[in-house]
Records
---
Amino acid sequence: MEKYKGGFWISFDNPWETIEFLLDEPKSNDKELCFLTYDANLYGLPNFHTWDKEYQEKIKGMVLARFKDYDGSIYLDGIKIK
């Protein structure tokens, strides 16, 4: 889990579209990684389940590609995506 403590980010063509994913350490362990979503200024975003479904799928694909070698579960704002 130490490897994921810094979280990660995804950026698109426009800098204001950057999404930061910060590890929710109290809810994470070696078998489950829980991330909270923030904008580029580290302002909390609305919960992942409220996002447009097409956009959710795009983000899920990008996150899953990043964690393709991770065997545990992955959660974004409490929503299991793997």
---
Amino acid sequence: MAAIDTEKVKQRLDAYIEDHFAVGNKRNADIEEFELREEVLHFKLRVQSKEVKRTPFGRVTVYSLTYHVEGDVNLISPDPDDVKICVDAPWPVNSICVTAREIAEYLMA
């Protein structure tokens, strides 16, 4: 098995979750759990999605949500039919889903 650069994987995981699971014009993802067991990565991230609009009366928060995304992904040989990660999101998006293969390929790029 090739060596895995855990710091690079952490940075890419954080960016991936923020880009694919957070919505709105103010997004954030923070890693709360990150453990590599052989080639299986266990993770949990806190995700914040927020939409703020300007109005003639000032800024208005349309929505502000905090939720978690967590999973276990085999980084070396993910089974694309085995794992699908989804989170609920505010309207009009409703649900955001990705497969374990998509996450692993992105993290190991």
---
Amino acid sequence: MADETLEAPIVEPALLDAIAAEKAESQRLMISGAAIGALDLVAIAALGVGCPLCAVGAPALIGWGAYRAWKVHKLAREVTEGAAATQSATSKSPA
């Protein structure tokens, strides 16, 4: 039997950088939506009137960021599983 060791899948660094950038962008969208919503709540509490655009935009930004985060998570999982499958297929050599 061949000595089998567990190795991390090989993935292009540029692809990992793109995934990390997309993840950061999705988090930025969700934080922006939460901040806009919080500011609108403060305006409602202080003035009694809120911004209608903020009331629609805040949940939209949070939702869009969550959707992008989900897509990035799904892509990262596919990339690492695909790299692991490719690596295991190439490491198995016929005896």
---
Amino acid sequence: MTNMSVNFEGYVEEVMGRAIKRGIVKTKIEALRLGLILLDEKFKLHEKEEDGDDGDYFGKKEMQKMKK
């Protein structure tokens, strides 16, 4: 697990704030995580394991719950 501090300004800050206000996510970190998952879904950045299991490296299962 990695800890980091990130400062969001302008467009990105506004998008995150709107995602929180609309109830899409609860926190900025959830917004960031969801953004990474959607980026992977669009561009297929993470390769699945040979057994077909792609693991849960980004908390993908939790994010799927939040999307519902």
